[in-house]
Structures are given as C-alpha cells and as structure tokens.
Amino acid sequence: MKLIRFAMAAALAAAAGCMNTVNTTENADKNMTPTHIADARFVTDGFLRDRLALRNVRFSPAPGGLQQVQVEATSLRVGFWDQAFGPERYHIRYKFTWFDVNGMAVETVLSDWQDKWILPGETVQFQSVAPSPACKDFRLNLMEGN
C-alpha cells in the first residue's frame, strides 16, 4: 500500500513539475495612454468565460482614417487540474465583424474565423483594423476550438 501511495505522489510531483505556464513582467509606470472603451458581453459558454478572461478593449483611429481595435485576454488555465486534463495550449477561434454608421455589417474576406493558441497564463491580443473608413464599430466573437 505504501508503494502505491509513493508511486501516486511521485506521479503527481512529476506532473506538477511539467506544467508549462507563462510568467510575465511589464512596466508598472505605464508610458502609454491607451483609449479604453466600455464593452458589453453576451456569454453563452461559461467554460470559455472561466478559461479566458477578457481584460480590456482598446479602440482608436489608425493611419488613413480607419478604426482599429485590440482586445486583451488572459488564459486562466493555470492550475494543476487544467494542465492534467487539458491540452497544453488552449485553442480559441475568433472573428471580428465591422459595422458602418448605420449598424450594417461590412463583410470582407477577413470576416472569417481565425485560430489562436494560448499557453496557460499567457496574455494575448485579438486585433483588427476596419476594412474601410465607413466602419465605425465592431463585434468580436470567440469560441473554443476543437
């Protein structure tokens, strides 16, 4: 019985030592002045919400009169159980849709689903630039990949 307990403890210790997470550091005294906007969220997948935290949304003009958006997100999959029973990288699919001043969707070749793989604890940005100066707003759709 002691041998079984020892083997289980050794396996857990080995698995805990193999976790591949991302540690970060950044300037505590921010030199940038990003434009953050308030966002509205419609959540249908509680698992995705609990695994990927949307931190902030930045919206600003880009060169040439186009709008650009950047949504920052952090993978919350950092615990032992997330590592033991899930893939190392978290597969996310995302899609930006841009809208004109009348709220009509402006479809382009870039309006298709894109893939992103995120390491446990990693912070990433989902970015898009409006396809035309007529675009004034956006929507970001996120879902777990296969």
What does this molecule look like?
It is a single chain. The chain is an alpha+beta fold and 146 residues long. The chain has one domain: Sandwich (Immunoglobulin-like), CATH 2.60.40.3230. It is 18% helix and 37% strand. The chain is built from three helices and seven strands; from the N terminus they run H-H-E-E-H-E-E-E-E-E. Strands 3, 4, 5 and 7 form a four-stranded antiparallel β-sheet that branches. About 6% of the residues have low confidence.
Tell me, briefly, the overall form.
elongated
CATH class: Mainly Beta
Find the CATH topology.
Immunoglobulin-like
- Report how far the terminal alpha carbons are from each other: 40 Å
Instruction: Describe the oligomeric state of these chains in a short phrase.
Output: single chain
Strand content: 35-45%
- List how many beta strands DSSP finds: 7
What is the residue-averaged pLDDT?
78
What is the number of helical segments per DSSP (H or I, 4+ residues)? 3
Label the structural class. Answer: alpha+beta
Task: Count the domains.
Answer: 1
Largest sheet: 4 strands, antiparallel
Low-confidence stretches: 9-17
Give the helix proportion (percent range): 10-25%
Tell me the CATH architecture: Sandwich
The Rg value, from CA coordinates, equals 20 Å
Order of helices and strands: HHEEHEEEEE
